[in-house]
Amino acid sequence: MKTRILICFVCVIFFITPIVADDISIEECMKLVSGTWINNEYRGDGIFGKQIRHENGWVDAYIEATDTEIYRKGKIEIVEAWVDNEGDVWFKTHSFVGEYEKGVEPSKYDLCRISKSGNVLEYIWSYHGPPTEIDPNHLFYRIYYRQE
């Protein structure tokens, strides 16, 4: 009986554990997402061509990727982050548009993914709680590319 339990334990450790995603701290995730993200196909109407994301959570949004004047500021709080089996970093955020005050309800919720290379940021957002998947065909899907 003890042998069977030991065999089951070993199977769980070697076969089930690798399926579980790795952890990444929220601080590490904030550093990873920080930078300038652009998509030359986006030009305003709530779909900004450039976002500059700062480590402290502030986001500067620009209508077009070439703009130098900030159109809107917002703030994100990463509430959960993990690394999947392919090495992509996933995270959930609460987003706040305009003035930010701790304890205020978020303006929207995001599910985000940064590619293993660190050069592609995809996300989908919702007003009604965190999305459960990233669907490129969804109206609120966005994709950005890191500007070096």
Q: What is the β-strand count?
A: 9
SSE order in H/E notation? HEHEEEEEEEE
Q: Number of DSSP helices?
A: 2
Distance between the termini: 59 Å
- Binned, the helix content reads 10-25%
Total number of domains: 1
- What strand line-up does the widest sheet have? 2-3-4-5-6-7-8-9
**Could you describe the largest sheet, including whether it forms a barrel?**
8 strands, antiparallel, barrel
Q: Which residues form runs of ≥5 with pLDDT under 50?
A: 5-20
Decide which structural class fits the backbone. Answer: alpha+beta
List the helices and strands and how they pair.
Elements (H helix, E strand, L loop, with lengths): L1 H15 L5 E2 L2 H8 L1 E4 L11 E4 L4 E5 L9 E12 L5 E9 L10 E7 L5 E7 L14 E6 L2
Antiparallel strand pairs: 1-5, 2-3, 2-9, 3-4, 4-5, 5-6, 6-7, 7-8, 8-9
Short description:
The chain has 148 residues and is of the alpha+beta class. The chain contains two helices and nine strands. The radius of gyration is 18 Å and the shape is globular.
Comma- or semicolon-separated keywords:
single chain; 148 residues; alpha+beta; eight-stranded antiparallel β-barrel; 38% strand
Tell me about this structure.
The chain is an alpha+beta fold and 148 residues long. The chain has one domain (21-146). The protein is 16% helix and 38% strand. The chain has an 8-stranded antiparallel barrel with strand order 2-3-4-5-6-7-8-9. A hairpin with a 5-residue loop joins β7 and β8. The chain is globular and about 40 Å long. The N and C termini lie far apart (59 Å). 21% of the residues are buried. Residues 5-20 have low confidence and may be disordered.
